Amino acid sequence: MSYKAVVFDLDYTLWPCWCDTHISTPLKLHKSKKNTVVDKYGYEVTLYEDVVPIFEYLRSKNIKIFTASRTASPPTAKKLIKLFNLEKYIDDSEWGWGSKKNHISKLAGRNDIDPSEMCLFDDEYRNKDVEEIGVKFCYLPNEKLTWSEFNKHINPSHEH
């Protein structure tokens, strides 16, 4: 793999909802379901099962892990990341309104990585515009990060 960093969208990439509209704080871990968070009204959000193994794989290859999101509720996103215990994997994040090109440019600058050495996994096709700054766009048409999608974009010859 030739990337120095892999950037992940959050909503419908790492988990199956928009954290700024589908869930209400406070959030807490489910008492018995692994990788599941429960919101104020009992709505359950589960981390997609391949996220942690993919993050561990990237970490083992010394590839940086970034997140970029248009979320209108960064505190909720941050709480989900904390509850899902993803903080230990994520090297940097850029969230808020605006283009993912801007998010990734900021991440690249802060981390001294050329955008051409990065790729973005995202469920929204409109974010393909990151290719204008040299980032490889990895579209997730099924709104879910899986090993199959990851390998298709990153490591076509790698079977997992």
Short structural summary:
One of its GO terms (molecular function) is acid phosphatase activity. With 160 residues, this protein is α/β, with parallel strands linked by helices.
Number of strands: 8
Roughly how many Å apart are the termini?
15 Å
The CATH superfamily turns out to be HAD superfamily/HAD-like
What order do the helices and strands follow?
A: EEEEHEHEHEEH
Number of helix segments?
Answer: 4
**In what range is the share of β-strand residues?**
15-25%
Computed over alpha carbons, the radius of gyration is 15 Å
CATH 2nd-level architecture? 3-Layer(aba) Sandwich
So what's the CATH class? Alpha Beta
As for the CATH topology, it is: Rossmann fold
- Return the structural class: alpha/beta
Strand order of the largest sheet: 6-5-1-7-8
Query: How many domains, in number, for the residues?
Result: 1
Mean pLDDT: 92
Assign a percent range to the helix content. Answer: 25-40%
Main sheet specs: 5 strands, parallel
InterPro entries: HAD-like_sf (IPR036412), HAD_sf (IPR023214), HAD_SF_ppase_IIIC (IPR010033), MDP_1_eu_arc (IPR010036)
Protein name: Magnesium-dependent phosphatase
GO molecular function: acid phosphatase activity; protein tyrosine phosphatase activity, metal-dependent
Pfam families: Acid_PPase
